[in-house]
Structures are given as C-alpha cells and as structure tokens.
Amino acid sequence: MGRGRVQLRRIENKISRQVTFSKRRTGLLKKAHEISVLCDADVALIVFSNKGKLFEYSSDSSMERIIERYEQHSYAERQLVPTDSESQANWSLECPKLWSTIEALQRNLRNFMGEELDPLSLRDLQLLEQQIDNSLRRIRTRKNKLMLESISELQKKEKTLQDQNKMLAEKLKVSEKMQTEHEQRELQNLAQNSSSFMQPPPSPPATILFPSLTIGGNYQAKERTNKEVEAQSRPSTNTVIPPWMLHHVNR
After folding, report:
1. 208 or 103: which leads in pLDDT
2. What is the DSSP letter of 234?
3. CA distance 224 to 246
4. What φ, ψ does residue 58 adopt, rounded to 5°?
5. Is 224:209 a contact under the CB 8 Å cutoff?
6. Claim to verify: residue 27 and residue 70 sit in the same structural domain
C-alpha cells in the first residue's frame, strides 16, 4: 500500500511538528549533500527552527564565501534591471554597511594615531604595531629613493656647472692672453716711435787729410785740422765761405 499525499499545512501538534522537522531536516541536508557531490555544485543551506535554532550546510569549506558570491550575483542582477523599490531596498541595505565601514576606518585611523587603544587586546596591539612597522618601512624606502634621485640630480647639475666654469675659465685665459699680446705690441710700437724721435743727427763727413810731402808736413796737417774744427765751431756770419776756399786761405 503506497504512502498517502501529505497535506501541506502547519502541524498544530507541537510534538508531531518537532518530529516532522527533525526528519525533514535530516532528509533536506542529505539531499543538499547529494546534489553537491553528484552535480559538483556549490550548495549552502540555512535553516532556523521555530525556536530560533540554526542548522546549516555548506558544500564549500566557508559558508561566507558562498554567501558573498550570492550577494555579488544578486547585486549584478539588480543593477541590470533596477526598479524604484529595489533601489530603495538596496540603499537601505547598503547604508548600514557603509556606515559600519566608515566607523571601522575611523577607528583604525584613531588607533594608528595612538588613540583609543584601551579596548584593544594584546593580539590587536601586536597586529597594529606590525602594520605601523610595515608602513614605516615603506615610507623609509620611498624617502630613500627620493633622496637618491635628488642627489643624482644635484650631481648632474654640479657636473654641468663645473663644465661651464671650465669653459669660461678657458675663454678668460684666451682673452687675457690676447689682451697681453696687444699691450706688448702697443709698447713695442711706442718704444720704436720714441727711439726714432730721440735718435741724434748724423755726424758730418770726416775730412780726409793727405800727408804733406814737404818738411814739417805732419805739423802743418795737424794745424790745418785744428783750424778747420775751430772754423766749424765758430758761429756763422752772413758771409758763407765754402770749405774749399777756407782750405786755400789757411795755406
């Protein structure tokens, strides 16, 4: 004789209701396990009894991972076909999450600043110290990198300035050399002009004396030479006598 169809309605008898819940719950969990194994499906089952007791099953090791996947999937579907009621419901669900996230971030920030550390346990303080050490390590690494880059730039600028200074020094040396050579040429020209201006007048031609063939010729030649020198040294008069006339007169 086959089993009759059970009418789907609330069982009024508490004992019968509890027995039926236990049997159906065991069967439901068994079916969830079977479908997850046979079909390689991710199954998450959550059941609360009328007294608020929780019964759950998850094919994955983490129930939270399946619930998070479900939330992402349902959120993507709601984004595709948004409605006013769904949008309002989404905002009503998202608002508490955002507020809790903001409060957690603010609390972490205060903890990083060294405030409100009393509620933290030893484990929390150790984690906070480790996070601060990691942050300081990253900050020092970035600071050292910037300092090395700044030093490299300054070294390049120093080398450029040294090259420019060397070039200017060479130009200055060449300019001073040219100026010195120019001054030397001017001094030489000035000295040549001065020597040509101060040069004495040319001396008169020497008088050639022929020895006399007579007795006492040497004495007479010397006397004539002395007279000619005295005649040249005396001031000249208006009458100019040529030297050859004076030669005859002295005779």
Report:
1. 103
2. S
3. 10
4. -140, 130
5. yes
6. yes
